[in-house]
């Protein structure tokens, strides 16, 4: 051990968190005391559409850039946390069928965790993006008591991702696909209208949560139906892809069509959380993703509707909380960093605080 290591204080080492997305990477640094060294988004192009080699190099650039920004010497970095969209194995091998973000043939079965580890020469700890966000939400919410609690998180975006955290640890499952909450099929009574077609998911399932509570669900299932009820709505004149993306803005203005759509989404998530209550009985239910990256009044209305649609026993109501995922746009990178810190921390407990 060299002299620098012998005098190093507990807070003098750190881990890096890298959140890989379809267009951008987001990076952060977390020191050994649980302090994040950056309080804002730090992004660079992810270049995933250019193939694996370019994408791994872009992640390496994100790593180098965040160290420079935070004046963190490379010698102090113990590990790197990485998250990507799925589907992928628990060890970061992209599905043999590819995915929405990794759609070239070269991505199929590609070990992105191993490739980044070889490129950086540091241990890389992998999670999918929804699990990373769920892990950060859990540790941010419970702090020093994180290892004493469990939680379930639904992350609503293009699809619906999720995460199940038990005693402060993400539940991965045998194939690494635990927490794929979007593909849980739910009872549709009280969610859709009597004459509404059963929503279909891109995965082939009918009536799963993602078929309703996702941007894809809006585009493919909910909006086409509700536009038949509101044929004179301005969104009827828009291409369906654009109309789906514009819908949240109408929701913030309490537009009746938009409220009808988002009410169905909230009720679907409530059905999902009701199932979770009977499987894991978590201490907290978290909601994240684009649907709550909205005006505060809309975000609170949506969360309240989810809560009201979740059927809990009286004892569960007393014990559980409902909350928005903290620091929404940074949650993935921060959760990846928490996983990395936990992997190298002798104590195991991780307390994360705002910078």
From TrEMBL:
<dbReference type="InterPro" id="IPR000600">
    <property type="entry name" value="ROK"/>
</dbReference>
<keyword id="KW-0808">Transferase</keyword>
<dbReference type="InterPro" id="IPR049874">
    <property type="entry name" value="ROK_cs"/>
</dbReference>
<protein>
    <submittedName>
        <fullName>Putative NBD/HSP70 family sugar kinase</fullName>
    </submittedName>
</protein>
<dbReference type="GO" id="GO:0016301">
    <property type="term" value="F:kinase activity"/>
</dbReference>
<comment type="similarity">
    <text>Belongs to the ROK (NagC/XylR) family.</text>
</comment>
<dbReference type="InterPro" id="IPR043129">
    <property type="entry name" value="ATPase_NBD"/>
</dbReference>
<keyword id="KW-0418">Kinase</keyword>
<dbReference type="Pfam" id="PF00480">
    <property type="entry name" value="ROK"/>
</dbReference>
């Amino acid at each position: 051990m060299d002299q620098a290591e012998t005098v190093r204080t507990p807070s003098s080492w750190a881990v890096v968190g890298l959140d890989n997305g379809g267009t951008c990477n987001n990076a952060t640094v977390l020191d050994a005391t649980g302090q994040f060294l950056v309080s804002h988004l730090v992004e660079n192009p992810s270049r995933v559409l250019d193939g694996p080699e370019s994408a791994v190099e872009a992640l390496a650039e994100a790593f180098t850039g965040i160290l420079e920004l935070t004046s963190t010497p490379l010698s102090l970095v113990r590990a790197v946390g990485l998250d990507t969209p799925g589907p992928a194995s628990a060890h970061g091998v992209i599905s043999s069928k590819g995915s929405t973000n990794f759609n070239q043939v070269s991505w199929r079965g590609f070990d992105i965790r191993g490739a980044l580890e070889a490129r950086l020469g540091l241990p890389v700890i992998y999670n999918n993006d929804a699990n990373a966000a769920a892990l950060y939400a859990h540790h941010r919410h419970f702090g020093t008591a994180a290892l004493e609690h469990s939680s379930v998180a639904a992350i609503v975006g293009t699809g619906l991702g999720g995460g199940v955290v038990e005693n402060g640890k993400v539940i991965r499952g045998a194939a690494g696909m635990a927490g794929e909450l979007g593909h849980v099929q739910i009872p549709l009574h009280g969610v859709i209208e009597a004459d509404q077609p059963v929503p279909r998911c891109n995965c082939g399932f009918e009536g799963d949560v993602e078929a309703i509570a996702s941007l894809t669900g809006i585009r493919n299932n909910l909006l086409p139906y509700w536009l038949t009820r509101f044929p004179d709505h301005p969104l009827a004149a828009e291409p369906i892809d654009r109309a789906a993306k514009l819908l949240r803005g109408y929701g913030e203005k309490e537009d009746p069509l938009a409220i009808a759509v988002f009410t169905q989404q909230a009720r679907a998530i409530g059905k999902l959380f009701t199932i979770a209550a009977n499987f894991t009985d978590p201490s907290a239910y978290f909601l994240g993703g684009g649907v709550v990256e909205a005006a505060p009044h809309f975000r609170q209305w949506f969360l309240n509707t989810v809560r009201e649609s979740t059927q809990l026993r009286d004892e569960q109501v007393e014990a559980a909380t409902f909350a928005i995922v903290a620091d929404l746009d940074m949650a993935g990178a921060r959760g990846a960093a928490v996983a990395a810190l936990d992997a190298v921390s002798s104590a195991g407990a991780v307390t994360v605080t705002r910078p």
